[in-house]
Each structure stands twice: as C-alpha cells, then as structure tokens.
Write a structure and sequence with these properties.
This protein has helices at about 1-20, 30-35, 40-55, 70-95, 100-115, 120-140, 140-165, 170-185, 190-200, 205-210; strands at about 25-30, 55-60, 65. Helix 2 packs across helix 3 (about 40-55). The two termini are about 35 Å apart. It folds into two domains: about 1-65, Arc Repressor Mutant, subunit A, CATH 1.10.10; about 70-210, GntR ligand-binding domain-like (Four Helix Bundle (Hemerythrin (Met), subunit A)). It is built from ten helices and three strands, in the order αβααββααααααα. It is mostly helical and about 210 residues long. The longest helix has 25 residues, at about 70-95. A three-stranded antiparallel β-sheet has the order 1-3-2.
C-alpha cells in the first residue's frame, strides 16, 4: 500500500510544481503533507526522496524540504541544452514522421489555437506540452524523448513564466505553425533551427525572461 501511496503523492506534488501551485523556495512540511493527504509520514518521506533525486526539491538545513530553485547561470545552461534536444527531436521528426505522426502534431497544434486566442496561459501551457510531445514521438527515438521530457519537467516552472508575458502566447503559437510546416515539408534543417530558436532564451526574450523569473 505504501508504494502506491508514495507514487500517487509524488505525482501530485510533481504536478503542483509543474503547474506553479508550488513555487521555487516553497517549503514542504512532512507533517502537513501527511495530514493533507491522509497518510503516514513514511510515504511522504519516500515521495520527497524521489522528488529530490529528480532535482525538483532540495533539502536545506533547518528548513527541511523546499521546492528547488535554479541559479540563473545553471538555468541558462539548461535552456541551452533543452534547445539542442528539442532541435534534434524536430530534425528527426522531419525525417521520420509517419502520416499519423504528422496528423497528431497537426491536431495538437490546432488544439492550442483557442487557448492562445483567449490568452488562457494555463490551458495553453498544457496543450503546448502535447504539441512538443507529439514531435518527440515523431522523432522515433525513445531515449531522446525521455531525456527531453526529464529536462523539460525540470524547467517547467520557468517555461510557464515565459508564457505570462502578454504577447508570448500568440508568438509561441505562430512559431508552432512554422515548426509544424517545416516538419510537414520534411525540411530537416529549418525544423531544427525553428524549434531551437523557439525554446532558447536570447536577445529581447532573454531580458523579458529574466524579468519574469519568480
């Protein structure tokens, strides 16, 4: 039973970190968590250990478990790697995507439109994840997909803050249109370049990004 509970609990806490309900620096109190979830402290402790192993929380002296925050320099290095991984996914997707894969990417892209037009950040972020994952799947490299998803999850709280910039949601949607077209046209180099630029924080988007950090 304990195994099932700590896995459920870990998923729930992960979800709260990814959706920004729990923010970098927030404290995770074992006693409170066991009360909220109606479990003993053992599954809570196990869930926290797993989140720590994934780099999502850190243990601090006298504070206990807190949601991990990332130093700006590390954050930029991680975004740089993220851009390379996503670019590689796009390049392989442009070469390998089946007709069904193209259709899945198209559907995921179209689903983003209403959320983008309504500036519904949270809905757009969730659908944006589906769009990117459809591309990872089309790349037909499971190891690459799992590495990309792991880093994306780690950066999730910071990627969400990017979308809160007033024009960013529509910009992101427009970039998706171009990325999708390049993959559909089998334009390997263009697909890679567009997705790399889409993920990387550079130029004006860099200062907006830094200003938006929690």
């Amino acid at each position: 039973m304990s195994h099932g509970r700590h896995a459920e609990l870990r998923k729930e806490l992960e979800n709260q970190i990814f959706t920004g309900k729990l923010k970098p620096g927030d404290r995770l109190d074992e006693t409170k968590l066991s009360e909220i979830f109606g479990v003993s402290r053992t599954p809570v402790r196990e869930a926290l250990l797993q989140l720590k192993a994934a780099g999502l929380i850190e243990m601090r002296a006298r504070k206990g478990a807190v949601v991990a925050s990332i130093e700006l320099k590390d954050l930029l290095e991680m975004f740089e790697v993220m851009a390379e991984l996503e670019g590689m996914c796009a390049r392989l997707a442009a070469r390998r995507a089946s007709v069904e894969d193209i259709e899945d990417i198209r559907n995921a892209h179209n689903a983003c439109q209403t959320a983008a037009e309504n500036k519904d950040y949270d809905q757009y972020y969730a659908l944006n994840v589906d769009f990117h994952e459809a591309i990872y799947k089309a790349a037909r490299n499971r190891y690459l997909a799992s590495e990309t998803i792991a880093l994306r999850n780690r950066l999730s709280p910071y990627r969400r803050t990017q979308l809160r910039n007033s024009n960013r949601v529509m910009e992101s949607f427009t970039e998706h249109s171009q990325i999708f077209k390049a993959i559909e046209d089998r334009d390997v180099n263009m697909a890679e370049k567009l997705l790399k630029d889409h993920v990387n924080v550079q130029g004006a988007s860099f200062s907006d990004f830094v200003a938006s950090l929690p």
